[in-house]
Amino acid sequence: MSDSPIPVYVDTRKAFLQEGKISGEVSLDRMPRFQDSLANKAGAVHVELSFDLNESKRRIISGHLQAEVEVVCQRCLEPTAIALADDIKLALVKDEAAAEGLDSGLDPWICEDHKLDVAALVEEHLILCMPLVSYHQKGECISRKNYVVGQHNAGGEGQSDRAGENPFSVLKSLKKSDLTD
Ligand SMILES: [Zn+2]
User: How far is the centre of ligand 1, averaged over its atoms, from the C-alpha of 38 (Å)?
Assistant: First the structure.
């Protein structure tokens, strides 16, 4: 099995038998819990996974993920782009009991049947490597841009003053016409 696009489910029997590799994009739509922590649906998640047996005949899923997504900046509450990257190394087991029997240093991924949900595995890693809080780069917050816009408006103050005079003069002329009537 050569590099192929990420399927929704990987048949783990086939993947380990062929010592397969997969790489490609995983849609954010398939990671609802991760998406909840994002500012929007913009971005992409790329993953590469290999399926190999180790020397103790354990089924090992290893690889790497990279994501570029947008989260809410905790300073200005506008979206800011962040990059996430993580290595993946998991032992595929069929239940909790098998997970407990793993050598130390191997994290289990429980898959009861032969259908590995790749998005769920990637989502779990992404959630773990999310920073607790994110900010724009220094000086790039949206509030700073608003401040610049505010100054620009201040320059046009004369305009609003003139606009403010008009209702009064209209009022005055109304009063005058009231009196003359
Ligand atoms: Zn910001």
Answer: 14
pLDDT higher than threshold 80 for residue 101: yes
User: Span 99-128, mean pLDDT?
Assistant: 93
pTM of the model: 0.74
Beta strands 79-93; 59-72: pairing state: antiparallel
- 139 CA from centroid of ligand 1 (Å): 8
CA of 142 from ligand 1 middle (Å) equals 6
- Max Cα separation, the chain? 106
Residue 155 has pLDDT above 80, yes or no: no
Q: What is the Å distance from ligand 1's center to 70 Cα? A: 12
CA of 168 to the centre of ligand 1 (A): 42
Instruction: State the Cα–Cα distance between residues 115 and 110, nearest whole angstrom.
Output: 11
Distance 33 CA to ligand 1 centre (A): 23
- Give the separation between CA 2 and CA 179, rounded to whole angstroms: 93
In angstroms, what is the span from residue 141 Cα to ligand 1's centroid?
3
